[in-house]
Amino acid sequence: MSTYNATEVLVGGAVLACAIAFGVYASQSTGLSQNSNGYELGASFRSLEGVGVGTDVRLAGVKIGTVTGVTLNSETYRADTTFTISDGILVPDDSAIVISSEGLLGGNFVEVMPGGSPFYFEAGDQVEDTQGAVSLISLLVKFVAGDGSE
After folding, report:
1. Are strands 62-73 and 108-113 parallel, antiparallel or unpaired?
2. What is the pLDDT of residue 50?
3. Residues 20 and 72 sit within 8 Å (Cβ to Cβ)
C-alpha cells in the first residue's frame, strides 16, 4: 500500500507543479505582472480591434513594452490608450503608432514605426500620429463585393 500512496503523492506533486507553472506563465503573458521599469506614453486610436491591456508593444518585431490602459473617450469616441516602453528604449518624437496583425489568424499588437527626429518622447507624452486596426472582415467584404474600379 505504501507504493501506491507514494505514486499518488508524486503524480499529485507533478500536477501541482504544472498548475503553478501555468499560472505564472498566464499572469506574465496577460500582463498581470507588469514591470514598473519603463516610461508611459499615450495614444488615441479610431479602432483598437484585438488590442487590450497586456498587449505587446513592438519595435522592429521586438517587444519593447506593454499596453497598460484602454478607455473610451466619450467626447471624441476614440480609444485612449496608455502603454509602457522599457527604460533604455528611446522613441523619436515623430514616430507613428500602428495597430498591426501577426498574420491572417494571429492576434493584433501595437507597433512603433520610428521617425527620424533627434528628439525623443518623454514620460507622459501623447503620440499624435496613430493608425487604428484594419478590419479583415471589411477588407474581405470589399474584395468580394468589388469596388467598381479597374
Report:
1. unpaired
2. 82
3. no
Give the integer Cα–Cα distance in Å for 99 and 130.
Answer: 8
**What residues have CB less than 8 Å from 60, skipping those under 6 apart?**
none
E strands within the chain?
A: 39-45, 56-59, 62-73, 78-85, 96-101, 108-113, 126-127, 130-131
Q: What are phi and psi of 45, to 5 degrees?
A: -120, 150
Helix (H) or strand (E) holding 6: helix 2-29
Task: List, run by run, the mean pLDDT of 10-residue segments along the chain (150 residues).
Answer: 74 88 75 68 88 90 92 92 92 90 78 91 89 73 70
Q: With beta carbons less than 8 A apart as the criterion, state whether 44 and 76 touch.
A: yes
Alpha-carbon gap, residue 84 to 51, rounded angstroms: 14
Task: Read off the pTM.
Answer: 0.65
Between CA 41 and CA 51, with CA 46 as vertex, the angle to 5 degrees is 65
